[in-house]
Amino acid sequence: MLKGVPKILSPELLKVLCEMGHSDRLVISDGNFPAESMGKDAIVIRCDGHGVPELLDAILQVFPLDTYVEKPMNLMEVMKGDNVETPIWETYKEIVAKHDSRGADAIGQIERFEFYDESKTAYAIIATGESALYANIMLQKGVVTD
After folding, report:
1. What InterPro entries has UniProt attached to this entry (predicted)?
2. Is 134 a catalytic residue?
3. In this predicted structure, what is the pLDDT of residue 2?
4. Does residue 116 carry a catalytic annotation?
């Protein structure tokens, strides 16, 4: 164990976050996301017993969001015709506001199938046990300036 590092961040996950460079992308997926098939060229880390919000909060304590792009965090857009509420997105906005001065302005949306395509180029995918629908997020890493 280490001081100052959230306990939810496993050694494997910390290693991956540290290996990532500027502009590399990380997907934190819900339990329905096809992490293994999307992550054939990525590192897939299983965190099945955890939800996306708790992982997002812990990751953003050590992971800077990219300041060179307008929307360094993107959500999977709800498909037209899907009658789905996404209250978890409000939780994401609160978490991002704690760690990035842009708050909700740092968050964008990507159409579902485009999100899948972009996930195939991510550095890593974290597969969670999150049960909320449309809870997938993609983060773009920034530069550590401290």
Report:
1. RbsD-like_sf, RbsD/FucU_mutarotase, RbsD_FucU
2. no
3. 83
4. yes
Catalytic one of 30, 50, 57, 66: 66
Give the separation between CA 69 and CA 108, rounded to whole angstroms.
Answer: 11
Domain span at 35: 22-140
Q: Is 84 helix (H, G, I), strand (E, B) or coil?
A: coil
- How many structural domains is the chain composed of? 1
Instruction: Kindly report the CATH number assigned to the domain that includes residue 71.
Output: 3.40.1650.10
Active site residue 66: yes
Classified as helix, coil or strand, 109 is strand
Report residue 72 CA to chain centroid gap.
Answer: 10
Cβ atoms of residues 73 and 140 within 8 Å = yes
Write down the catalytic residue from 22, 82, 105, 117. 22
**pLDDT in the model for residue 146:** 74
Cα angle, residue 61 at apex, residues 50 and 105 outer, rounded to 5° = 95
Quick one: pLDDT band at residue 126, thresholds 50, 70, 90? very high
Residue 82 inside a domain? The answer is yes
